[in-house]
Amino acid sequence: MTDLVSPPDGIATNPPPASPASDKKIKTAKKTGALGIGGWIASIWLITLTAAAVFAPWLPLDDPAKTDFSVPKNNSSPFTAGHLLGTDNNGYDILARIVWGGRVSLVVAAGVLIIGMLVGGTIGLLAGFFRGKSETLLMASVDVFLAFPALILLIAIVAFLGADLLNVVLGISLVSIPAFARISRATTLTYAQREFVLAARAAGASQKRILVREILPNVILPLLAFGLLVVGIAIVAEGSLAFLGLTSTETISWGGMINGGKKPLQQDNIAHTAMIPAVTMFLTVLAVNVLGDRFRAAFDVKDSML
Amino acid sequence: MTKYRHRSWRRMIALMTGLVFVAAACGGSDDSASTTEGDEPASKPTKGGELVFGAESDISTLDVGAAAQPADKVVTLGLYDPLMTYEDGELVPFLATSLEAGDGGKDLSTYTLTLPTDVTFQDGTPLNAEAVKKHFERLQDPTTACPCLDTVKAITNMELPNGPTGDTVIFTLASPDVAFGDTLAGSVGYIESPTAVAKYGDEYKNNPVGTGPFKLAEFVPGDRVVLVANPDYWGKDENGIQLPYLDKLTVKPIPDSGQRVSALESGDIDLFQTADTPTVKAAEEKGFSAQKISGSSSTILLMNNAKPPFNDVRARQAVAYCTNKDLINERVYEGIRQPSYSGFATDSAYYNADAGTPRFDLKKCQDLVKELGGLKFSIVCIPTPEADSVLQLVKQMGEAGGMEITLETQDQGAFVARMFARGGDYEGACFRSAQFQDPDAIRAGLTTDDAGNLAFYSNKEVDKLLKEGQATADFDKRKAAYDKVQEITGEEVPLITTLYDLFGNVYNSEKVGGLPPGEVNSLGAIKPGYIFVASSK
Amino acid sequence: MGILKGAVTRLLKLLAVVLVVSFLTFSLTKLLPGDPVVVLLGPQYSNVEVREAVQEDLGLNKPFLTQYVQYLGNVAQGDLGRSYTSKFETTELLKQKLPATIELMLLAQLVSLTLAIPLALFSAFRSNSRTDKAITTASFGLISIPGYAFAVFLVWLFALRFNWFPAIGYQPISEGIVGNLRSIALPLTVLVAGLTAVYTRLLRSDLISTLQEDFILMARSKGLPTRYILARHALRPSSFSLITVFGIQFGTLIGGAVIIEQFFVLPGIGSLAIESILKRDYLVVQGVVLLIAISFVLINFLIDILYTILDPRVRRAGA
């Protein structure tokens, strides 16, 4: 009564963008689980990339950190002697670095999903379910985090902890926690009032049982859909740090490759060193986004059937 | 003591923005240490016009005593005049009218400086003995936080025999120093208006007033420094034209070296400076002109002589034997640079070609590593694309010799802290040595317990030889001392100089009429008072 | 009045958020390795006497909390302190960097909205048509482009190949509007591409769900023209997610355009933040974070008010 706009959740008055609560009424033509052609292509791309990244050490690739001195100059074009995608300005095999760089993106994605989603999701779930003081505290900290410029925080974290991959992943994951917490809480709130939860409660189910059996399964899906979106952002964010020269020299990442390739492009009109990692990153983020979208569409159908 | 020290560490700040290594020790040379190669001015200088200059890093200071990066140098050389300067390798008075060591040149601990009587600062304050005295007193105040503190603290007394408004200052130094005049040729020798300092206090840094050819019109850190001609400037060129030639010079920091070329191509700037050698070549291929400058300055692999594994001389030698400088030159610098086996420039009178510094020898390297039972260390650097390329090669070379090398990346603030605040918290590190004229410049970097000795090298004989070299003006004695120093360091490898820097001032010859020679005591900076617009018929 | 009291309470909450942010920043800067005095002094740092003199001069020798309380006191009087390295007033530095940031941010938002609203309206109304699919696919693509890679190629193409726009730099509006617009054309394009895509997608999906609501069906059955329905009935209730994200983007753009600013050498707030972090110029870092936090919080406060204007239900609930 006293609040001007009195949203229950502070600044996040309204449903967050990716929250299914906001678009739960979208009725897409697609049936549950249908990926569509785009979805299939995206899946195949991501699976190939992941497989290549995981098995990189056993693949018949050049060492990604060995200069090929037999090629007279660095930055040799694609399809030159023994290098399918050419070499970069260090004389490294670009194909090998793309594959190994995929590992970094994979680690970043895993970090965000494991740390960001797990921690943020749990916090949001508990806050949305139990409400009360813990919720107030959570929303207050989310407000603070949102007001804190994320990239600056990220840079500070990397500067503080050092620039190795682990710290970069940790930093990106930490920064993503509030977003996950918000989504998770908003979704929990909508489900906590649903008939099936009220029914379970009336039937005398314990709080723990309701949380784990009734709410969690419903929260996980939208969280995962949002997670895919964040994965895309996180891959780009790692690249941003690399682009600013704030990640380790020894980390092979697509962002670092783009950064290294921009000078050949601007100075010598050699485009492939920057273009190949840029296109790879673009396709990967695109694939992740397409999947996330399909995922949400599929989930929404389910949601509307409830 | 030595200007060497403050230059070297200031360079570190430049790392972030394009330079690679900073100096720990080494460097310094005499006479023709700096080689300038480039086109002679194509047209006769004329007055008027304006130009935009792309600097390789942000302008970090407009104050005296601190400027060391080429970007700072260009701006401060516009605002101020050094008391001394080098002309064709000769140390000569510039703003001053003379500088004499005591007792007819025999007493190197007293110097008499005479000033011109008709020069005023840009705010009308007359230049006199009092202004010079106040200048040094200001730098001696710790809260000025001048990196030159040790250098100016060596001045124990300043006497003004002709009174405060007179033209003479007699300096007394704590110990004999043959390089005092050389010091005054650097930013320590820029004199600022005492009236302005009194008026602006802390904010003087942003309201600089000197005697130089340009006045500050606007300073937006990170974006631009605008200099306009000082109409009352005292200097004239050999044809009697009053300097500066330009009406206005805008200096724009463009840290990204690729973007500097882009900006020159798109006409957003008219000339730029770069320490990035391939950029110079690329710009030349695009039809731009380049003035190339090299000298004692080189990239350095710094090793912590006080801690394992580099407290063992064999470990340092192993790294030196494994480092194939020609290969670095070929793969990273397109073969334009010159491998460095000494802290001195190869054309320096003090260069010792037979010092026995290790050359690339994989076999010797492998044997040493085997003898040591393996060698494992890390190299810490501020990442730049250029440094990355060199480091990755160094790593591969070390691995070929059986070493295990980790490349560590730190941001500028953390890097500086590791180098200076924690007693050398590193094993190997990237550095760059500075450009020098007087060989005494190498003293701080090699003297036991000197704050500038970042390699923590210690050798009593070297200490003694360096002290001797500082205390005498006799060329033969100095030459003998520095020859011996190079032999010892060649054997003990306190650090590894990799390649001499090649600095370029790249310009569009349709707009820029030609460049004056680079300042010999800095890496390529030019005196902006002498830049002129190409006369378009 | 309830509304006024509510506004005051809300503002107090916002103040608390800003305070916590500033405290966190202050603590963070103390935790970071590296110390402004080392950056200032270099090797001279090992000289204890000099180090202490400089620390005292900068007020860094006092206990942490004392420093913080003193800082807050100064901030309350509008004094954000002086840069350790350049000695500029932080407020002066912010003032120098704000024009470029604000212009870029406002234009990016404005252009993106101007593009996104018609695109989304069209796309939603003709959903699943070929044009809709083209728009959806294009926005998907644009969202997925890493901004820095896009920037590199824009410069290569438009500054180097065609020489239409400058590769670097920012020309203040005071020096001519044409030059000014040319100087921000490329960075603006990078920002607009991403934003337009995000906004189009958001608005489209919300519009589609609104178009299925009963009141739209009712309007349709009344025979109202489609354009009228879209503009008068559907747009308003569909714009909530858009406005939320719009608000959040303001915060992101103030400090988050760092890479764009760095690459195009624009004198903006983001570059100032990075430079200051790297030089451990903490008073400036705090000033920047404070500015971003305050603007973020204020913009979102305004957006909350906008909700009440857009949606009568919220207004009624508040009354």
General description of the model:
The complex is a heterotrimer of chains A (306), B (537) and C (319). Chain A has 306 residues and is mainly α. Chain A has a single domain, classed as MetI-like fold. Chain A contains 10 helices and no strands. Chain A has helices spanning 20-23, 36-54, 94-130, 132-147, 150-161, 165-192, 195-202, 207-243, 254-268, 272-305. Chain B has a domain at 296-501: Dipeptide-binding Protein, Domain 3 (Dipeptide-binding Protein, domain 3), CATH 3.10.105.10. In chain B, helix 10 packs antiparallel against helix 12 and helix 16 packs antiparallel against helix 17. Chain B starts with a helix and ends in a 30-residue tail after the last strand. Chain C has helices at residues 2-31, 36-41, 48-58, 64-76, 90-125, 130-144, 147-161, 177-211, 214-221, 226-238, 240-256, 258-263, 269-278, 282-310, 312-318. In chain C, 51% of the residues are buried. Chain C contains 15 helices and no strands. Chain C has 319 residues and is mainly alpha-helical. Residues 315-319 of chain C have low confidence and may be disordered. Chain C starts with a helix and ends with a helix. The chains are: A mainly alpha (306), B alpha+beta (537), C mainly alpha (319). At the A-B interface, helix 9 of A face helix 8, helix 9, helix 13 and strand 17 of B.
In short:
Chain B is α+β, with helices and mostly antiparallel strands.
The strand count of chain B comes to 20
CATH homology superfamily of the domain at 296-501 in chain B: Dipeptide-binding Protein, Domain 3
The CATH topology of the domain at 296-501 in chain B comes to: Dipeptide-binding Protein, domain 3
Poorly predicted spans of chain B: 1-34
How many β-strands of chain A, per DSSP? 0
Radius of gyration of chain B, Cα only, in angstroms? Answer: 23 Å
Descriptive labels:
heterotrimer, B: 537 residues, alpha+beta, Dipeptide-binding Protein, domain 3, 20 strands, C: 319 residues, mainly alpha, MetI-like fold, 15 helices, disordered C terminus
Write the layout of secondary structure elements.
The complex is a heterotrimer of chains A (306), B (537) and C (319).
Chain A: H1 20-23, H2 36-54, H3 94-130, H4 132-147, H5 150-161, H6 165-192, H7 195-202, H8 207-243, H9 254-268, H10 272-305
Chain B: H1 3-15, E1 35-37, E2 50-55, H2 70-79, E3 84-87, E4 90-93, E5 98-101, H3 102-105, E6 107-114, H4 129-140, H5 149-153, E7 155-159, E8 168-173, H6 180-184, H7 194-200, E9 214-220, E10 224-229, E11 248-253, H8 257-265, E12 271-274, H9 277-285, E13 289-294, E14 298-303, H10 313-322, H11 325-332, E15 338-339, H12 362-372, E16 375-381, H13 385-400, E17 403-409, H14 412-421, E18 428-432, H15 443-446, H16 460-471, H17 475-492, E19 495-500, E20 503-507
Parallel strand pairs in B: 2-11, 2-12, 16-17, 16-18
Antiparallel strand pairs in B: 1-13, 3-4, 5-6, 6-8, 7-8, 9-10, 10-11, 12-20, 13-20, 14-18, 14-19, 15-19
Helix pairs in contact in B: 10-12, 16-17
Chain C: H1 2-31, H2 36-41, H3 48-58, H4 64-76, H5 90-125, H6 130-144, H7 147-161, H8 177-211, H9 214-221, H10 226-238, H11 240-256, H12 258-263, H13 269-278, H14 282-310, H15 312-318
